[in-house]
Design goal:
Strand content: under 5%
CATH topology of the largest domain: Four Helix Bundle (Hemerythrin (Met), subunit A)
Largest sheet: none
CATH class of the largest domain: Mainly Alpha
CATH superfamily of the largest domain: NADH-ubiquinone/plastoquinone oxidoreductase chain 6, subunit NuoJ
Helix content: over 70%
Distance between the termini: 76 Å
Order of helices and strands: HHHHHH
Number of domains: 2
Shape: extended
Structural class: mainly alpha
Number of helices: 6
Amino acid sequence: MLGLSVHQWLFGILSFLAVLFSLMVVFSRSPINSVLYLIMSFFSISGIYLLLDAQFLAVVNIVVYAGAIMVLFLFVIMLMNLNHDTEPQRTVLTKIIAGIIGGMLLLVLTSVLKGSSALNKSFYGTSEVGLIKNLGNVLFTEFLFPFEIVSVLLLAAMVGAVMMGKKNIN
């Protein structure tokens, strides 16, 4: 079977699905279907993270992006009341320009990745790059002060949001 392992087959299938769902996000006419395709794309990307031994990134991708942010996108789309009269009409010239810019972006990305030495390394080595234990060690040793500053900023933002949303009882 061409010498490909199960991990390589799974990586290929998940990559294909991620690209397919991403294209469906762009080409779908319904904004709600676009959001659902984007959620499926996030799940495919999380599967790729799992294959690359980055369990923490996979779980965070599902919880934060597919869970919280996509629900927010879905509520915003439902509240916007989109119809054909309010949407801007795209001309053929704007579609051609968008295609040219997208092709140029693809050309730049392939030229950058072509010279990358990281692609020559094995995906499935014994590295422990994506493990939560290593992330915790780095966060609480090297980056303890910035971690604490971010926690204080998030606490201040939560208190500020509660104070701004609170009604005046006067």
